[in-house]
Design brief:
RNA-binding; 3 domains; single chain; alpha+beta; 5-stranded mixed sheet; BirA Bifunctional Protein, domain 2; YbaK protein; Rossmann fold; 9-stranded mixed sheet; 573 residues; globular; 30% strand
Length: 573
RNA sequence: CGGGUAGUAGCGCAGGGGCUAGCGCACUUGGUUCGGGACCAAGGGGUCGGUGGUUCAAAUCCACUCUGCCCGACCA
């Protein structure tokens, strides 16, 4: 490709709003162009990188025996009503009516569609297992897109769906994906870790996420450096310490101006672990069958030395969503904010108590009276509720497996795998007949990789102060050929030779100064740079550099340039 | 959806009731340069996000609205 013809241009300055390096360079180098919030065009350079990533993904999926298909973006609402997700998914899924006033939606994932295909095709155990995948556009109307391609509304996702006759088969294909995903990221050059995760709206039990650890990440990952335990903080467990004592009767004490645990600790002269911390949320509960929804106040109680993990609280409350309660909503339930507790709260309030509180005695809790707390409150005596683990794991907490201190870091989710089980097959009547003629639900799994997000992470990982430096496996071109000599016939000939040899070459044929060409080459970050200038041309040579190591300049004979470049490509691939 | 912030040329920005709306980069033409973002000269490009209002006069003041970005809520 000739730079003079390339459908993009480089920018000297970063467009306003490009807050992280990778995103800034993707824009400045002309890989992508933003159309609206969370909606981007892929320009030729970006599209080529995406194609390279896609073919790596296809290679690995095909190796698993997965068959590529393409499912529709537009789905009938009725299909999604079968699983209840037409109603339970919030405005993140866009819905509309067709001309006949039928409910339609833009599929943000394809479990429903895949299950529908499954039930049409699978009749007998003899057909199982089956595995399909697609690379397809997803529209998810995220309330807060950010950081360029990291979090967008429209994106390409590789999603695969497995159909098995039993759990054993599911576990096998799940493990196959688990390993294949690591190979995919390795081939692309992205360091990732797999962590145990929440299954969220997908349902199902076992799930893993692939995380690229980076400060720009939005997820918090808990890892144990000693034994290797890893989990998303949303589900991460940890060992809690207990301090058993004999339960006493509760007692009202005056505690003016103590709205926080910190204040209480100061005024009463007790450790934070002797207090109960309450978080007030409003949960939305949706009936999957009818779509009717109602809200309830959800009170989470955790011991004062810990924090509440809202995702765990939402799961324990079985709510579709949670948001912080307004002051009026708290008051309505008979609770005084700042001095609040479930003691004396109105019927119908959902109380979720962390096991740390359930197993501790004589905690200080709000008295639901301005300026007063109770000391010596006890779960089961003074109030009741559902006991669950709703505490948030944090740095230096103890590993649930080995007890050593945990680490907390930020990460970007670049892939996920779910064991769905029979959640979809039962809801959608996707059954097969087994060897004995018994009718059984197909066991399913689903597996996703965000292609554009993967590119965005690679650009975060591979850049320097001058621009991108993507690995050759995912770079848009293998070679950037800069000609600085006047003899255009010579550079044209070299360009044709490289192209003819099947080398992917970006040829800077523009009438620009050397500085401009070098700066643009650095920005675009093609791995191998050939410079043909007067310095070496007179000796029949050209200079070759790697973008990743600009200090080392190699000198290649023009005579056998093609074969030398081929060797170099092979060496760094 | 809440809080913040911004919208003036392709990009980055200045101007803040008054006369022809400016600067840098980018772009066009001519010339000189020619190995790390060259120089000189001459040019082209704007309904100042939109609508309504105040005023003799609005890019500038007011109201509403749209859009982008950041933080939160939310989310794979």
């Amino acid at each position: 490709m000739r730079m003079s013809r390339l459908f993009s241009k480089t920018l000297r300055e970063a467009p306003n709003g490009a807050d992280c390096k990778g995103y800034e360079y993707l824009l400045r180098a002309g890989y992508i162009d933003q159309l609206a919030t969370g909606i981007f065009s892929l320009l030729p350079l970006g599209f080529r990188s995406i194609q390279k990533i896609s073919s790596i993904v296809r290679e690995e999926m095909n190796a698993l025996g997965a068959q590529e298909i393409l499912m529709p973006v537009v789905n009938p609402g009725d299909l999604w009503k079968e699983t209840g997700r037409f109603y339970s998914i919030d405005r993140e899924m866009s819905r509309f009516k067709d001309r006949n006033d039928r409910d339609m939606c833009l599929a943000m994932t394809h479990e429903e569609c895949a299950t529908d295909l499954g039930r049409n095709i699978i009749d007998s155990y003899k057909r199982l297992p089956l595995l399909v995948y697609q690379l397809q556009t997803k529209w998810r109307d995220d309330p807060r897109p950010r950081a360029g391609l990291i979090r967008v509304r429209e994106f390409t996702m590789k999603d695969s769906y497995s159909f098995d006759k039993d759990q054993e088969g599911l576990e096998k294909v799940y493990k196959a994906h688990y390993d294949a995903y690591f190979r995919i990221y390795k081939k692309c050059g992205l360091p990732v870790i797999a962590v145990g995760s929440d299954s969220g709206m997908m349902g199902g039990k076992v799930a893993h996420e692939y995380m690229y650890l980076s400060p720009i990440g939005e997820d918090t990952i808990i890892t144990c450096p000693s034994c290797g335990y890893t989990a998303n903080r949303q589900v991460a467990r940890f060992q809690k310490d207990y301090y058993p004592e004999e339960p006493k009767a509760k007692e009202l004490v005056e505690t003016p101006n103590t709205k926080t645990i910190e204040d209480l600790v100061k005024v009463l002269g007790i450790p934070a672990r002797k207090t109960a911390k309450a978080l007030f949320m409003v949960g939305t509960f949706i009936n999957d069958e009818t779509g009717e929804e109602h809200t309830k106040l959800v009170v989470g109680i955790v011991r004062g030395d810990m924090d509440i993990e809202e995702n765990k609280l939402q799961n324990a409350a079985k709510a579709n969503s949670l948001r912080p309660a307004h002051e009026e909503e708290i008051l309505e339930a008979g609770i005084i904010p700042g001095f609040g507790s479930p003691i004396g709260a109105r019927e119908g309030t959902i109380v979720i108590v962390d096991d740390s509180v359930a197993k501790s005695n004589n905690l200080v809790a709000g008295a639901n009276k301005e300026g007063f707390h109770y000391i010596n409150t006890n779960f089961g005596v003074d109030y009741n509720g559902t006991v669950a683990d709703i505490a948030s794991a944090a740095q230096d907490y103890r590993c649930p497996v080995c007890g050593k201190p945990l680490n907390s870091s930020k990460g970007v989710e670049v892939g996920n795998i779910f064991q769905l089980g029979t959640r979809y097959s039962e809801a959608m009547n996707c059954y097969y007949q087994d060897e004995n003629g018994a009718r059984k639900p197909v066991i399913m799994g689903s597996y996703g990789i965000g292609i554009g997000r993967l590119l965005a992470c690679l650009c975060e990982e591979y850049n320097d102060e001058r621009g991108l430096m993507l690995p050759i496996a995912v770079a848009p071109y293998q070679v950037h050929f800069i000609s600085l000599i006047k003899e255009t016939d010579v550079s044209e000939r070299i360009y044709s030779q490289l192209e003819a040899a099947g080398i992917e070459v970006l040829f800077d044929d523009r009438k620009e100064t050397a500085g401009v060409k070098f700066a643009d080459a650095d920005l675009i970050g093609v791995p191998i740079r050939i410079t043909l200038g007067n310095r070496s041309y007179k000796d029949g040579k050209c200079e070759v550099k790697l973008r990743s190591n600009e200090d080392e300049v190699m000198s290649f004979d023009l005579e056998n340039l093609v074969s030398e470049i081929k060797d170099l490509i092979a060496k760094i691939s």
